[in-house]
């Protein structure tokens, strides 16, 4: 007999621990459910990979399914101030923009190109240290003479004991260390923006969430998506439709997945954070709710602002206008930015953020949005300083590096990003997406700009 396949992010007995954590975070009283799970021999959420090593007995799996549904029926006391419905989100934002905040200038082509290239560079910087905690990232950088981080990670000169204690992902390291970068390697943080571009080219800006679902079914193998996206794909295959796909046995619905999908919605709406956020909302509700959706709206608004703003502070101010101010994500963004303004030593900023968000998974939307905001303020428009700061936070390093790289790349334009961050990428990105393998960033930028008049009419 062959070994049983243990898929990550799917099995009920692995989801229940994450859902219990989510319940604590949104104020639901789940202690009775937690006690029943523990008394039956259930385990906590797997800390990293998303699946325990061994399958659960059938009785435990059935109990997990029952308890997941029971937890879903417990109302959250935060629901009123953290709605998911679009009309309620807009109503919760007293400063929601009623019109475009700024018109794009003659440098739009350079800025969109910079956004694509910057996203790729930030992603590649964070890729080899994904899943390595903050202290490990610093140990690797210090041991190789790269602390504070000012360039690509490298294995050259890395002592064996440091490498053994903090091993990188072999697959990622083979394509994203200084000594072997040869073009931009495939990554979900780059596949999703290309998927959004394909969606807009196919359906236009009037697309619906069901169109997002169709593109996913056409283009995304389950093995290339994670957490909430994998659960949403499973739910689609079970015959569920949005927004049920986001909530059915999906404890990852407030994690970072929707945030990494949203940049293109901002790039086709330069200077218009509200319209960018509306498109991001339609995409996000396929798989996310509340703060998970706000992460996408925040990212889309940030990237929209990055193409017209003069600095990160202006971009952040515009982006916060589309996030309910009483939500945990808005509070985290404000806190991250404020800490970076008041404390010049970024390690102390990170100390405070890690203490504040110690209960969150390393790919939750709230803590990662705080890190993005802090890095943008700290970097003050310097590309290398900004992406290095957010990667040093040690949470979702490649996703956050991509988002910060996108925003600062949009602010600077391709011509303003130092060549040492873009030359190794060779103006191409690998992808399993239909029609996108070896796509050039200048071509992707041109295709994106072609959608701007249709988005801004």
TrEMBL record:
InterPro entries: ADP-ribosylglycohydrolase, Ribosyl_crysJ1, Ribosyl_crysJ1_sf. Keywords: Magnesium, Metal-binding. Signal peptide: none annotated. Gene3D superfamilies: ADP-ribosylation/Crystallin J1. Mg(2+) binds at residues 396, 398-399. Its cofactor is Mg(2+). It comes from the Bacteria. One of its GO terms (molecular function) is metal ion binding. Binds 2 magnesium ions per subunit. PANTHER family: ADP-RIBOSYLGLYCOHYDROLASE, ADP-RIBOSYLGLYCOHYDROLASE-RELATED. This is ADP-ribosylglycohydrolase family protein. It comes from Marinitenerispora sediminis. The lineage of its organism: Bacteria, Bacillati, Actinomycetota, Actinomycetes, Streptosporangiales.
């Amino acid at each position: 007999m062959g070994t049983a396949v243990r898929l990550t992010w799917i099995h009920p007995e692995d989801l229940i621990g994450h859902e219990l954590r989510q319940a604590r975070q949104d104020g639901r009283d789940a202690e009775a459910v937690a006690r029943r799970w523990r008394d039956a021999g259930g385990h906590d959420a797997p800390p990293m990979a998303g699946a325990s090593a061994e399958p659960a007995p059938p009785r435990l799996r059935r109990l997990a399914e029952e308890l997941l549904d029971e937890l879903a029926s417990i109302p959250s006391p935060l629901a009123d101030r953290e709605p998911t419905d679009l009309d309620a989100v807009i109503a919760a934002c007293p400063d929601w923009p009623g019109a475009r905040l700024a018109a794009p200038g003659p440098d739009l082509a350079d800025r969109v190109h910079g956004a694509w290239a910057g996203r790729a560079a930030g992603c590649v910087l964070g890729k080899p240290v994904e899943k390595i905690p903050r202290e490990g990232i610093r140990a690797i950088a210090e041991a190789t003479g790269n602390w504070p981080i000012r360039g690509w990670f490298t294995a050259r000169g890395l002592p064996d004991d440091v490498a053994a204690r903090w091993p990188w992902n072999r697959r990622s390291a083979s394509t994203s260390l200084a000594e072997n970068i040869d073009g931009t390697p495939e990554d979900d943080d780059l596949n999703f923006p290309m998927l959004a571009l394909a969606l807009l080219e196919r359906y236009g800006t009037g697309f619906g969430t069901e169109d997002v679902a169709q593109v996913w079914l056409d283009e995304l193998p389950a093995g290339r998506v994670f957490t909430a996206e994998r659960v949403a794909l499973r739910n689609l295959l079970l015959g569920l439709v949005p927004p049920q796909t986001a909530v059915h046995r999906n404890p990852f619905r407030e994690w970072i997945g929707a945030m990494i999908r949203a940049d293109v919605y901002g790039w086709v709406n330069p200077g218009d954070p509200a319209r960018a956020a509306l498109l991001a909302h339609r995409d996000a509700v396929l798989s996310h709710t509340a703060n998970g959706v706000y992460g996408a709206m925040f990212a889309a608004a940030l990237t929209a602002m990055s193409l017209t703003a003069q600095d990160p502070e202006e971009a952040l101010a515009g982006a916060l206008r589309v996030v309910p101010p009483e939500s945990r994500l808005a509070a985290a963004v404000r806190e991250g930015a404020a800490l970076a303004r008041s404390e010049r030593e970024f390690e102390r900023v990170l100390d405070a953020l890690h203490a504040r968000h110690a209960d969150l998974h390393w790919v939750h939307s709230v803590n990662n949005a705080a890190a993005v905001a802090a890095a943008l303020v700290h970097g003050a428009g310097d590309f290398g300083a900004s992406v290095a700061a957010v990667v040093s936070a040690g949470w979702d390093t490649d996703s956050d590096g991509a988002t910060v790289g996108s925003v600062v790349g949009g602010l600077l334009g391709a011509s303003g990003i130092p060549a040492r961050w873009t030359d190794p990428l060779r103006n191409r990105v690998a992808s399993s997406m239909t029609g996108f393998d070896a796509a050039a960033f200048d071509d992707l930028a041109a295709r994106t700009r072609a959608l701007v008049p249709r988005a801004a009419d």
